[in-house]
Specification:
The protein is α/β, with parallel strands linked by helices and 217 residues long. 42% of the residues lie in helices and 18% in strands. Strands 1-2-3-4-7 form a five-stranded parallel beta sheet.
């Protein structure tokens, strides 16, 4: 592992809420050009940005991705730090591997736990699946039939079948995200850690109300 990223002087850091842009250099050669393209935009660059799947396909390790970003930044004379996003992580082992290489942002992928078929279930099937969710009564009190206003001029309501579909569809994913977040916090204890959740690459779209449910949980 790079000695630089094993120390407190690792240049990878969180965006701190600044506007950022993820470049995701898949070859390890594009970082100097990516940094030049920022111009005067003021955007914070996320230079090391790859998923475990991409690293497997390109035969690169997490350490190699990080090292390429560091040396690319040095080539470009960039000294303001950069983001490092370990993308589409599905297991605690994936998190530990990328955290050890110096990554600071973790995209937690729970797509495998999304119940895509909720929308196609019969009323009785949906109700049975809904009743099997641990702690569903607590969620029911917080969400069913209630209207939320996530932004000015925007409101969402979860009620009846729409609420049950949302709960059945995403209960497993929410549990997995929580599990993976704990692993990320533990693996980065004492240094930067940004969390992003992912539930894409599924066969059904996520409704606005479902998005709101996920974000609140």
């Amino acid at each position: 592992r790079s000695a630089l990223c094993a120390s407190a002087t690792c240049p990878a850091r969180s965006s701190g809420g600044r506007g950022s842009f993820g470049f995701g250099d898949r070859t390890g050669l594009g970082t100097p050009g990516h940094l030049r393209s920022l111009g005067r935009s003021g955007l914070f660059p996320v230079l090391a940005q790859q998923s475990i799947r991409e690293m497997t396909r390109t035969r690169r390790s997490a350490d190699e991705v990080m090292d390429a970003a560091i040396f690319g930044a040095l080539q470009a004379g960039w000294t303001s730090g950069f983001g490092a996003d370990a993308d589409h992580l599905k297991t605690p082992d994936d998190i530990r591997l990328t955290a050890a290489a110096g990554f600071v942002m973790f995209t937690l992928d729970a797509a495998d736990c999304v119940e895509d078929k909720a929308g196609q279930m019969s009323a009785s099937e949906l109700e049975a699946a809904y009743r099997r969710i641990p702690g569903v009564k607590k969620w029911e009190k917080s969400y069913e039939g209630k209207t939320f206003t996530p932004a000015k001029g925007l409101s969402v309501t979860l009620e009846g079948r729409a609420w049950r579909e949302a709960a059945v569809k995403y209960a497993g994913a929410i549990e997995r995200w929580a599990e993976l977040e704990k692993a990320a916090r533990k693996s980065t204890r004492g240094r930067d850690c940004e969390i992003e959740v992912s539930g894409d690459e599924t066969s059904t779209p996520t409704s606005l109300a479902e998005h709101h449910f996920i974000v609140r949980e």
